[in-house]
Amino acid sequence: MFKKLLILLAFSTSSFLIAQTSTEKELEILETPEQAESYLETKKSKKNKLITFNEEKHKTILAKELFKLRIGGTKINEREFEKTYYKVISKTKKTYHRIAYIYIDGSKNSLNEINEFRDKIIAKYNNGAPFDFLAKQYSKDDNANKGGDLGWFLKEDMHPDFQNEIFKTDHSLNDIFTVDVPSENWYYVVLKTHEPKDISEIEVLKIVETKN
């Protein structure tokens, strides 16, 4: 009886291996982002990539399903003409920050004019004007359309001069203050809209196969 069970187990295992595609077998052995990058070099299609999903920024059904997987977990989506594999390569938590800002182009105004302009904006805010309204009215870059909201960002994503002022410990939630980056002619009015937050991220290897 035991011998028969072994034979059945061997048969089941071999059937499973036969059922696996070559891509599934290749994905099984990948464990690190470096291995995933090396694997991508063997795949020419631009559809194949290593993607970072952020739990705050990515709210799609696919992203939510991928966040539920363990490291090494794989999800397969099938369509009529292609098969897409998603493998979770790593999971981390990073500290993100969030502010809103009004940008003033320093190349078009003197510093005195800029400071007078910023004082006027801050006075309006302190008198009850919503910051997003002021940003849409006065900010001189495309982020004005979002009410100045920068979204969640990492400290290292910022210009060093911007970093030095933004991350001062004396800035509390809802503080409004100015930031100067003279080397770039960037001048700002900044509102601290959120406290720092640890946000989960996953790196996912995406491989797309055309069905025969």
Q: Your description of this structure?
A:
There is one protein chain. It contains seven helices and eight strands. The strands form two sheets. Strands 1, 2, 3, 5 and 8 form a five-stranded antiparallel sheet that branches. A hairpin with a 4-residue loop joins β6 (176-181) and β7. It starts with a helix and ends with a strand. The chain is α+β, with helices and mostly antiparallel strands. Residues 1-19 have low confidence and may be disordered. It folds into two domains: 2-92 and 204-210, no CATH class; 99-193, Roll (Chitinase A, domain 3). The protein has helices spanning 2-19, 22-28, 33-40, 61-67, 111-126, 131-138, 160-166, and strands at residues 49-54, 74-78, 82-97, 99-105, 153-154, 176-181, 186-192, 197-210. The chain is 33% helix and 30% strand.
- Ends distance: 42 Å
**Can you tell me the number of structural domains?**
2
Low-confidence stretches: 1-19
Summing up helix and strand content along with how strands pair, one would put the structural category as: alpha+beta
Shape: elongated
Radius of gyration: 26 Å
Overall mean pLDDT: 89
Q: Mind describing the biggest β-sheet? A: 5 strands, antiparallel
What's the tally of helices?
Answer: 7
How helical, in percent, are the residues?
A: 25-40%
H/E order of the elements?
HHHEHEEEHHEHEEE
What is the percentage of strand-forming residues?
25-35%
The total count of strands amounts to: 8
